[in-house]
Amino acid sequence: MFYVRETDQNSSDGQEHFSTSGFRAVKFTLHTRDLLSTVLYILNSCSLSIEHIQSLNTNVHSQPLKEATRISDRPIKWDKSYYSFTGFKDPDEDLEQVWRMETTLTSWLDNNGKSAVKKLKNSLPLRKELDRLKDELSHQLQLSDIRWQRSWGIAHRCSQLHSLGRLAQQNLESLKNAKGCTIIFTDRSGMSAVGHVMLGTMDVHHHWTKLFERLPSYFDLQRRLMLLEDQISYLLGGIQVVYIEELQPVLTLEEYYSLLDVFYNRLLKSRIPFHPRSLRGLRMILNSDRYAPSLHELGHFNIPILCDPANLQWFILTKAQQARENMKRKEELKVIENELMQASTKKFSLEKFYKEPSVSSIQMVDCCKRLLEQSLPYLQGMHLCISHFYSVMQDGDLCIPWNWKNGEAIK
């Protein structure tokens, strides 16, 4: 079962409108392995058009659809002996267990602390090797930094640096084009929207070499992109166009330039009258998957590239003061967050204390304040990551949710 939004397709202006009834429940059971009849049945259930499918196949019959309308409301409920015989987990038993006991920070650390210590101890030689390789390559290629987009294990990261090191031995001149850049190991090769060199971990050395050889042309595109950002800023009263890695989809330099170009050409046609420099100090990011502008809690505007210019002007001007207040609050929160992280690192003698990008400053401040009220000896010398879930990473890092619970297990 799921829900679809009801629309009024019979309106006088010919446009679809959201109906006042809101959502309609859709529920069906798949009775056949025939792909075509299944797709037709699903579309019919959701009141969606099937003309485009029927036009592709003139042999579509309605009989499978009639058979498929036999919907059973009774959920499958297996006898306990089924789970005993097959070894599968009984979902009812799991739910009962969740109700009986909720995971708490102290209980989770009691159960997982020793295994985390063991994994961390085993990873220490590799961690030293990773630091050595990173320092050597950064110095040899005069890089600003080397990063990883994903939470790959230490062994995996060492392997990637060894691979880059071998390429540097074979083709040092091409790699020197990356001087001053940040290299990021990720899923695809290219240059990121913020100008980082992306090395796809599934690509072979030949692809990496071609990328390093093309870096001068990427730098030229980057200069044109920065000019485009300045032109957009000028048209919008001095508001700064930024790309925030933690909050936006991973885009290549070409993809981001295309996004900016579409938005800039729409602004040129509309010529929205903003007072010059009236919005200096404010920031905005562009989105291709939104249709209405919004103001983020961190103080920046989320602006769709296809946003109506008149609505955009009204929204920015009416929200400008709130945006400045949000930005000021963000800076204050960042200071508090850093102070609390330092205090937590010191109190628990943590070797490393960090958070996932998806954890906000407000969440981190709340988490640290509650941590500082606890006595947690298991954390001494550990690597602690504030996340949205409990986990012991393969190299011994402890992940705990920012909204962890403590006290006796809830009965």
Largest sheet: 4 strands, mixed
Q: How would you classify the helix and strand content by structural class?
A: alpha/beta
Alpha-carbon Rg, integer: 28 Å
Considering DSSP H and I runs of 4 or more, what fraction of the residues is helical?
Answer: 40-55%
Low-confidence stretches: 14-19, 60-71
Overall mean pLDDT stands at 85
Order of helices and strands: EEHHHHHHEHHEEEHEHEEEHEHEEE
Between the first and last Cα atoms, what is the distance in angstroms?
Answer: 31 Å
Overall spatial form: globular
Strand order of the largest sheet: 3-4-6-5
Number of helices, where a helix is a run of at least 4 consecutive DSSP H or I residues = 12
Percent in strands = 5-15%
Number of strands: 14
Task: Walk me through the structure.
- Helix 6 packs parallel to helix 7, helix 9 runs parallel beside helix 10 and helix 11 (309-347) runs parallel beside helix 12 (361-371).
- 47% of the residues lie in helices and 15% in strands.
- It is built from 12 helices and 14 strands.
- It is globular.
- The strands form 4 sheets. It has a 4-stranded mixed sheet, covered by helices on one side.
- The longest helix is centred in the last third of the chain and has 39 residues, at 309-347.
In short:
The protein has helices at residues 35-45, 51-54, 63-68, 80-86, 91-100, 105-141, 154-170, 172-175, 205-235, 253-270, 309-347, 361-371; strands spanning 2-8, 17-26, 145-148, 182-186, 190-191, 197-200, 240-241, 283-287, 294-295, 301-304, 352-355, 383-387, 391-392, 398-401.
